[in-house]
Amino acid sequence: MRYSLKQLAVFDAVADSGSVSQAADQLALTQSAASMSLAQLEKMLGRPLFERQGKQMSLTHWGSWLRPRAKRLLQDAQQIDLGFYDKHLLSGQVRLCASQTPAEHLVPKLISNIDNDFPEIRVALDVMSTKSVIEGVIDYQYDLGIIEGRCDDNRLNHEIWWRDHLTIVASAHHPFAKREVVTLSQLEQAKWVLREQGSGTRTVFDSHMHPLIEELDVWREYEYVPVLRSLVENGPYLTCLPYLDVEPFIEAGRLVELNVPDLKMDRTLSFIWRADMTENPLLDCIRREAQRMMKGKPRVM
């Protein structure tokens, strides 16, 4: 075997960051040492792995072919370092990315449980739209993702964690708030503020609404749920959000859940990870703890 794990680690870090200097910082190497390792790897393999564009590096065809295979070797090496599956031996970092709803309502409790039971595991968390979570896991930026709804990309494994539903809400002074039933024709005439395109919530909403109503009067689209809640609470709008996001506001009387018999929007919150990833005890541990957490609390339906 002509190449080393160090050389593969440098290759992987450069592929992640697009920069030799950033890869060197990540691996605690000098930039010259990282550059030398990468040059030696390319020379031994006889193929260029990156295209150089100034200081930025992008993968060649050969680099893209090597990347998942290098990932698997590095993950296997990490498992050897971790040892057996005893929880006291589990250590290392997991790069987790979650969409907004699970990040706000479920992930903090999950991380707290991990910190208590597996103190040597470090969970690095980013929060993005479902579309960006999927892209980040596919592109190796994250080890594990949590998304709203399904993902059918065959490059990813998919495991349901939590069940939720979307609900349409209005302010307590909205004309629809006093109605026992709200019809589709009334929804068509309303003013809407919604999550942005690409969010899991918007994808589920559109997939259920468009077959029933061709076009809605959408006034604003925002990324942040608190902005939408505040607009609806203080204005003449309707919105559609996960029940997890509006439950306390409904209970406090600040928002009203509308009864629309013709519309049922169940959805799931799910883990995703790359299908070409070898067994990883850290990811297994997090998913196992998440399922245990779900059993300890009623699902939101």
UniProtKB/TrEMBL annotation:
Q: Name one Pfam family in it.
A: HTH_1
Keywords noted in UniProt:
DNA-binding, Transcription, Transcription regulation
In this chain the HTH lysR-type domain maps to 1-60
Which PROSITE patterns does this UniProt record tie to the protein? HTH_LYSR
Spell out the molecular function terms from Gene Ontology. Answer: DNA-binding transcription factor activity; transcription cis-regulatory region binding
InterPro entries per UniProt: LysR_HTH_N, LysR_subst-bd, WH-like_DNA-bd_sf, WH_DNA-bd_sf
Q: Provide the family line.
A: Belongs to the LysR transcriptional regulatory family.
The UniProt entry, under PANTHER family, shows: HTH-TYPE TRANSCRIPTIONAL REGULATOR, LYSR FAMILY TRANSCRIPTIONAL REGULATOR
> This protein is called what?
LysR family transcriptional regulator
Q: Which organism is it from?
A: Vibrio agarilyticus
